[in-house]
Amino acid sequence: MRTPTVEAPFSGEVRSPAEAREVGADYVNAVGKVIASHVRNEYTGAAIFDEPAIGLAPTPRDKWLACRIAMEEYGHHLRFQKLATELELPDALTGAPLSVFEYELTTWVEFVVLKAIVDLAEVVLMDELVECSYLPLRHLAQALMPEERFHVSFGAVRTKELARQPARRAEVQEAVNALVTFSLPFFGRSRSSNNDAFRRWGIKNRTNDQARAEFIERTRAFVVDDAGLEYPDVSASWDGR
Ligand SMILES: [Fe+2]
Ligand SMILES: [Fe+2]
Question: Maximum distance among all alpha carbons in the chain?
């Protein structure tokens, strides 16, 4: 097999962990990094945002929805963990969590904005995996997408309701500013040898900055056009600081 490049990426389909190992260690390493980041992020997000949100939810219906979302996010962690186990990856939970998890969630308003913004980042990342060369990961992304879209639409509907209330508007705007900014590193650095490997192996097809620009475009449309709020001044490039 010729060595794939970013310009002429691997175009095959890899159906199983055994086939991934046949393609080679570089392929397993690249697809393993993408899977491990989801193993870690789904777990961390569920533990520090979704589970505490059950306690913050103001009504029984909101508590029920928060329980459902937390259950689904822990479920996503378990599904990605199954792929990681099948590929015999090292324990993903020992890696450093993403900077977005430094956000301190203290109110229900922050939680609904987080679902509208941060889960949209997750949707942008998973959208790409729907065409990934590793079919177990492609199929998992396809299976989880409806739940991620539900999280975003739950957050978007509640954010818009709150933004219409003059007394809550400033609080919503503040959460939007913080959460858009916190989500940008989610997409990785502008110059990234990991991203080069993901594109070489047909695991992703965009640069980190292209994915980040799409997130900015989609969240801007929501924040400005749908919620009537202001969008923070942000950049589509990120160098790790
Ligand atoms: Fe998730
Ligand atoms: Fe989600």
Answer: 63
For residue 230, which of 186, 170, 183 has the smallest C-alpha distance?
170
State the number of CA atoms in the 13 A half-sphere of 221 facing the CB.
6
Q: pLDDT, tens digit, for every residue of 168-181?
A: 999 999 999 999 99
Write the pLDDT tens digit of every residue in 2-49. Answer: 789 999 999 999 999 999 999 999 999 999 999 999 999 999 999 999
H or E stretch including 120? helix 108-129
Closest by CA position to 144, among listed 220, 56, 82, 211: 82
Q: Which ligand is nearest to the CA of 153?
A: 2
Residue 138 CB-density burial (10 A; 0-12 exposed, 13-18 middle, 19+ buried): middle
pLDDT in tens, 74-116: 999 999 999 999 999 988 887 666 655 778 899 999 999 999 9
Closest ligand to 38 CA? 1
CA of 73 to the centre of ligand 1 (A): 4
Ion ligand 2 neighbours, Cβ < 5 Å: 119, 148, 151
Total-model pTM: 0.95
**CA 3–ligand 2 middle distance (angstroms):** 36
Distance 7 CA to ligand 1 centre (A): 31
